[in-house]
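How a chain folds remains the central question behind the approach discussed here. This step matters because it turns folding into a mapping between discrete strings. The sequence in question and its structure tokens are set out directly beneath this paragraph.
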Amino acid sequence: MLSQPGTNRVSTETVSPRGSLRNTFLLVVLPISIISLLLIGGLTYIRARNAISNQVNLQLSANLDSLVTNFNSWITIRHIRLDLAVRLPELKTALDQTLSSPAAGDQLESETREYILEQLQEITSRREGLLFNQFIITIPDGTIIIASQPEMEGQTLATAEFYNTLSTSLDSMAVYGKTLSREDEINVITGIPYFDEQNRLQATVFGISGPLSMIGLLEDVTRFNPIAHCYLITQSHDFIRVDPYLKTITRDDPSLEQGESLLPIVGSLSVQASSGDHILTTTTFDGTPVIANIAWLPSLDAALVVEIPEDIAFGELNKIGPYTLAITLALGALLTVAIWVTTQRLVGPLKNLTNSTQKFAQGKWEQRARVSRRGEVGLLSQAFNRMAEDLTGLYRSLETQVAERTRSLEKRSHQLEATAQVAREAAAIRNLDDLLTYTTQLISEQFDFYHIGIFLVDKSHQYAILQAANSPGGQRMLQRGHRLEVGQEGVVGYVAASGLPRIALDVGSDAFFFDNPDLPDTRSELALPLKVRNLVIGVMDVQSTKPSAFEESDIEILQILADQIALALDNTRLYEQSQEIIRELQNAYQSQTKIGWSHRINKQPIAYHFDGVRITPAADSHFEDINLTSTRTSQIEDTEIGSTLSVPLILRDQIIGSIILRRDPGKTPWTASDLSIVTDAINQVVAALDNARLLDESRRTATREQVIGEITAKIRETLDIETIAKTATEEIRQALDLSEVSIHLGSHTPDQEKWS
């Protein structure tokens, strides 16, 4: 909760802006304007340095652009010449013959190798000199089959960093190391793939330009400045220094700052394949500060850097540095005094206002700014105080709304959880009375209501009868059979008739309220219909001691609960009905089974005996010394003639007989395993006996129906009453094997006509 704002507040009356911030600034700006004249020298120095820097940058860019153009032309000439050489019919014929020969993968004969190398050298030569120092021809797996250095033939270039890039496309790459030479030096490798008529790669021809062939290109850097330097940075981050005076190209380690500043640019340029230049200040190999310009050479897959020392570029300008420093120090002293004066007049009030703002932001809502002076700062403090008042009121309102929304969400969450629990536990109860009683108690505990009552509508839909209640008053109402007329009495009667929920926020003045002395503390009431398949079967009545305890949102939650209760009630009713039907069917079937077996036992012997050879009807002597009981459990009895096991024959909870098993004296007593085997076997026997009985009864029924049908057929052959009567008596006598059958019409008197 936010803290309550204090009662002591600073007055926020409007203050006239006499000592304005503008006048304060004039007092400071006037002396600064005078001092600014002294800054002209420093500004001139800076502008001069910027002008020189721009000129140096322009010259570096022009020189670098010229070098890049020369390099691109240098590479393009080699691409064209090498591609032209490979396309010549004579060389293609020689290559095809070489590649198709069995020795294509091994060292070739000296004559063929020399011919191909001479043709390549001759075609790619210029008047100014050789374009390539040496040539290499490889097959697709990287094996060298022809090389200007014979000792390289038979080796493989498959693992070389340039091979995958240059073996399948016309391109060039700068490579540093001993891969293609005897010394650590840079070589420019130009590769052109050789395809057959089906466009399948057959070989790759590589032309290698050594370091000396690049010297002439790089000599142009001295036109800018005799002490300018240039170097290359390869894809593998090798820094290759070029010294046109010593005619050497060597690899060197960059300084720390040089590597950190240039390598990220090289990586970015290589990814973007951009040819634009980048000017920056860094150090050279020996740590000397330089101005450098870097550009990417896509045709060489390397970066070219041109640099010039800073002390050379700004040598003359640096001589006036001490004078500039002295002027700067003097101006700094004057500016310090001016800032101190300004701080005293401006920063103090602003600091106080800042502190007040910070405390207010920390939740100290009673904090207000002190209005200690007139002017813009005073007006700002007043504006802050007004804003603080508005924010305090707004924050209070928001906090109240958030608290109310939180309570509402918590209440709704609790109601949903309680609804789920009531529905879950109610669904597990199968007895209707228990379900109603338990549901009212559980709803009261979970929702904390004064009274919960469940009414069920009678079959005539005339009265809603109270079936369960949790409150003491509700229990008294249950004892006297409390009921309400549907559509006539109270909120419950209205809901039972309309099928719509009803809220009585002030039950004392509600037109539908039924004044109930058993519930005198009720101040709010909510009645919800219990519906099943759009039929109102009852009403759930919820009452509270709090005025206006129910809202429209409560209807949604409690209606869900009411629907779940209605469904549980319907399921319980259906369950009880189904159980009653099952019991009736079981009783009927048991009765029918008992009658059927009684008839069977009366007609046939009641016992059979197996003597180890055959089965015969049992005589009374077989049961001497055997205790025959009608119990439902198996019994074991030891007698002089042996150990007897008596097991009842139970069919659908009816005892229809028993099986008696006897072991001679001295044999193993009956065990639980024996009893289990006998019980399983007897279950099968009982089922088979009953199936046999049912089959026999079915046959007798069929025979009886057949006889009745035959008698009926013969009787229907005539329409004469006398003939019908005589035919009936004769057919019944023969069918039932009777000695005499008489049919009398009317009262039985001596004079009555009869047929026999």
